[in-house]
Design a protein that fits this description.
Shape of chain A: globular
Largest interface: A-B, 28 and 19 residues
Number of helices of chain B: 19
Largest sheet of chain A: 6 strands, mixed
Strand order of the largest sheet of chain A: 6-7-8-3-9-10
Low-confidence stretches of chain B: none
Order of helices and strands of chain B: HHHHHHHHHEEHHHHHHHHHH
Distance between the termini of chain B: 51 Å
Strand content of chain A: 35-45%
Mean pLDDT of chain A: 86
Number of domains of chain B: 3
Number of helices of chain A: 8
CATH architecture of the largest domain in chain A: 3-Layer(aba) Sandwich
CATH class of the largest domain in chain B: Mainly Alpha
Structural class of chain A: alpha+beta
CATH topology of the largest domain in chain B: MetI-like fold
Helix content of chain B: 55-70%
Largest sheet of chain B: 2 strands, antiparallel
Order of helices and strands of chain A: EEEHEEEHHHEHEHEEHHEEEEEEEEEE
Strand order of the largest sheet of chain B: 1-2
Shape of chain B: flat
CATH class of the largest domain in chain A: Alpha Beta
Oligomer: heterodimer
Number of domains of chain A: 2
Mean pLDDT of chain B: 85
CATH topology of the largest domain in chain A: Rossmann fold
CATH superfamily of the largest domain in chain A: P-loop containing nucleotide triphosphate hydrolases
Radius of gyration of chain A: 24 Å
CATH superfamily of the largest domain in chain B: MetI-like
Structural class of chain B: mainly alpha
Strand content of chain B: under 5%
CATH architecture of the largest domain in chain B: Orthogonal Bundle
């Protein structure tokens, strides 16, 4: 059975609240069946608005949203059959866990014994069997979150939307919940649209990530591609850590270009520069630049150590390199033969393939 | 397993438990001293007057003090036949003292309340005593019985005996249109004289419907207040609170201007042709006026508790209800409404209790068919000066409110009340 790659489809969707500013601009997005897609972006980037349009709480100003090839703009939320997990869980405080889970089934007039079976199954899926008669206020934050997830899944919706569901949890719980939600998704194969501003969360959980900024999707790709090959400087900046140099292209060939900086010159991989004289921002991931490289690399520079911060599994070293005083290096703590002292001059090298010349900031 | 835990001692050898208690006691005394003025205030302004009201409402000591010997000698009387010579003699001696103090009129009045006809025969007896016509060496019983034939009627002596106890429930019975008859049985007054029961029922009815109207009007307003953006909700809030800042009398007077037969509302009805000019409906000096004015005046007491509860209900709950497949009505009825019950309870209780004792508005716009029990209380306070009767009715009102509160506690639970 081939999967529908346009199970959810945003077709040229615009959204404006006040008629002056577009919060979502010309959005085109296809989500295939069974996919875990994350909308990632800073607050105010339009990602939650997209989710609300899909859930039916907002209507697109222009364009149309299709669910399984049916336009849904005129269908009210309760007829869309989309499960949703809210930021603050939105469990009904006056109902027990059982009643919370039974709610979507009762309004669908499911038989009593069928309800019992489904609630049971959903609760065991989030490993909360035996909590049926508890009130939400008697549960911890993580347990409430699981109930919310179970409630969104109990009526077998085609799509589940999650609006920053882990935002209120502490770090450890958040991480374990990430894996749990990921496993639930893998087990039942439901389509998940997940909204978050936490890039770590997005990278761990998703099949694909749509990075939002300024009402537009900046890049839509798998987590590894997003991290390794950002298409513009916003994505490079937003996902992970990043060292940047601003400069001007002085020479360009097929897969390498020369960029002239304020005081120096480096080789880079031309991504969004086309010709000589283009302004550019060169982006290098901290772990791609090595100290005293053994292999031959086509960029070799010398920098002065400004700061050394111990991080447990690695040490962060801040260098003054080619006029950039914020150049970060990540040094694994296994390589302790290095002499990392403040003020020392060290050699740093990287491959021009890893230095991506993107659009200027 | 050792059940005895070792006692923990402080450095100076006193058990920790005891020294903790000591420290806590100091704090408790401090806290008590802080609330003491308020407690005193409450006792003086609330508990004491209510106690005073209660004793006044059941007090019947006046006659007990007037006829001490009579009641003493009556203790052995079975109340079936005419009393013995001894009773007559002690009654005469009591009566003589009253004549000396010129209090015999009061006695006549009080006894006449118990049974009609005492006025005349007491006056006759007074004249005989004044002229020293009664010879105490002869049978006093015979002589008194000769004064008037009613003194020979055992019913009158029974009436005197009934007044013996220093306390009486007569005022409470009167407030329910009942009285104690000759056989000490609770009896209804004749049908054409039953006014209080109508008033009680009307008071409860008006309070109930005013509460219902306030709820029906207040619920949407409170919801709007809780969901509108700040700048609009503040404006609306001022509109709701405006009545609070206006004098009650002014508001009631403005309703009089609006509702009278030549008033603004009637003019408008005539203008749009709803009623003809010579057939303007009466909207004041009846129950309609009372309903309209009281609903408007008490509305804020419904809106504010509802608003404070609704404000705490996250809008995502309604969204969750809808996204899970509930129609907007189901989401409202199953999710939103149950969460507002604490506010509904508080608002309804507040409005009902205020409405049941409402006075000025029904007095001004109620007319004859719109007055309530509180107006009756005021009438007895100011016009008839029967304070004990007014106290009895006031206490019955208070008791009614307490019963409602108790019922509410049973049904909804007082812990669920939320005033803000």
């Amino acid at each position: 059975m081939s999967k529908n790659t346009e199970f959810v489809k945003f077709d040229k969707v615009d959204k404006s609240y006040d008629g002056k500013v577009l919060v979502v601009k010309d959005l085109n997005l296809n989500i295939s069946e069974g996919e875990f897609i994350t909308m990632l972006g800073p607050s105010g980037s339009g990602k939650t608005t997209c989710l609300m349009m899909l859930a039916g709480f907002e209507t697109p100003t222009n364009g149309e949203i299709y669910l399984d090839s049916n336009p849904i703009s005129n269908i009210p939320p309760h007829k869309r059959g989309i499960g949703m997990v809210f930021q603050n869980y939105a469990l009904f405080p006056h109902m027990t866990v059982y009643e919370n889970l039974a709610f979507p089934l009762r309004v669908r007039k499911v038989q009593k014994d069928e309800i019992d079976k489904k609630v049971d199954k959903a609760l065991s899926m989030v490993s909360l069997s035996g909590f049926e008669s508890r009130m939400p206020a008697q549960l911890s934050g993580g347990q409430q979150q699981r109930v919310a997830v179970a409630r969104a899944l109990v009526f077998d919706p085609a799509v589940v939307l999650m609006d920053e569901p882990l935002g209120a949890l502490d770090k450890n719980l958040r991480e374990s919940m990430q894996y749990e939600i990921k496993h639930i998704h893998e087990n039942i194969g439901v389509t998940v649209v997940y909204v978050t501003h936490d890039q770590g969360e997005a990278l761990t959980m998703s099949n694909r990530i749509a990075v939002f900024n300024d009402g537009k999707v900046q890049q839509l790709s798998s987590p590894d591609k997003l991290y390794e090959e950002p298409v513009n400087s916003f994505v490079a900046e937003f996902i992970g850590e990043n060292n940047t140099f601003g400069g001007e292209v002085t020479d360009i060939s097929k897969n390498v270009c020369k960029v002239k900086l304020q005081n120096g010159e480096i080789l880079a991989n031309p991504i969004s520069v086309n010709s000589k004289g283009d302004k550019t921002t060169v982006s290098i991931r901290p772990e791609r630049a090595l100290i005293n490289p053994k292999d031959k690399m086509d960029n070799n520079q010398t920098g002065k150590i400004e700061e050394v911060i111990y991080h447990g599994d690695h040490t962060r070293v801040r260098l003054d390199l080619l006029g950039n005083k914020e150049f970060i290096l990540k040094v694994p703590n296994s390589s302790n033969e290095l002499d990392l002292k403040l003020g020392n001059e060290i050699k740093v090298g990287w491959n021009s393939q890893d230095a991506r010349a993107l659009d200027p900031k | 397993m050792s059940s005895e835990t070792k006692q923990i001692l402080t450095t100076d050898g006193i058990p920790l438990e005891i020294s903790l208690k000591k420290a806590e006691r100091k704090n408790k005394i401090k806290a008590f001293l802080l609330v003491a003025p308020l407690l005193l205030f409450l006792i003086i302004t609330y508990i004491f007057p209510i106690g005073e009201m209660f004793t006044r409402s059941i007090d019947d000591k006046m006659i007990t003090n007037m006829l001490p010997k009579t009641f003493k000698s009556m203790e052995t009387w079975d109340g079936k036949e005419l009393p013995s010579e001894e009773v007559f003699a002690s009654f005469l001696s009591d009566f003589k003292i009253l004549v000396e103090k010129k209090e015999h009129g009061k006695l006549a009045q009080r006894l006449n309340k118990e049974k009609n006809g005492f006025n005349t025969i007491t006056k006759k007896l007074f004249r005989q005593v004044k002229r020293n016509k009664i010879d105490e060496t002869q049978s006093i019983k015979e002589q008194i019985m000769k004064v008037h034939k009613r003194w020979r009627n055992v019913e009158y002596w029974q009436a005197i005996k009934r007044t013996a106890p220093p306390y009486t429930s007569a005022k409470y019975l009167k407030a329910m249109d009942m009285y104690l008859n000759e056989d000490n049985k609770i009896t209804q007054v004749s049908e054409d004289r039953r006014i209080h029961r109508i008033l009680w029922l009307r008071t409860v009815e008006v309070a109930f419907f005013v509460t219902v109207f306030c709820f029906l009007m207040g619920y949407p307003i409170a919801h709007l207040l809780a969901t509108l953006p700040m700048k609009y909700s503040n404006l609306l809030m001022i509109c709701v609170l405006l009545p609070f800042w206006t004098s009650l009398l002014v508001r009631t007077a403005s309703w009089m201007i609006l509702l009278q037969q030549q008033g603004v509302v009637n003019d408008f009805f005539v203008l749009i042709g709803l009623v003809s000019d010579d057939n303007r409906p009466e909207m004041m000096y009846n129950k309609v006026g009372t309903y309209v004015a009281m609903t408007q005046i008490l509305l804020p007491f419904m809106v504010l508790p509802l608003y404070s509860v609704m404000k705490t209900i996250s809008p995502s709950l309604m969204r969750a209800g809808k996204s899970l497949g509930g129609t907007p009505f189901v989401a409202f009825w199953k999710v939103y409404f149950p969460l507002t019950i604490p506010g509904i309870g508080a608002g309804c209780l507040l409005v009902f209790i205020l409405a049941i004792g409402y006075y000025i508005t029904p007095a001004l716009v109620g007319g004859a068919s719109g007055t309530l029990i509180s107006n009756q209380i005021a009438y007895h306070m100011k016009t008839t000066l029967d304070w004990s009767f007014a106290s009895a009715m006031g206490l019955m009102l208070l008791g009614g409110v307490l019963v409602i509160y108790w019922l509410y506690n049973k049904l909804v639970g007082v812990d669920n009340i939320k005033l803000g």
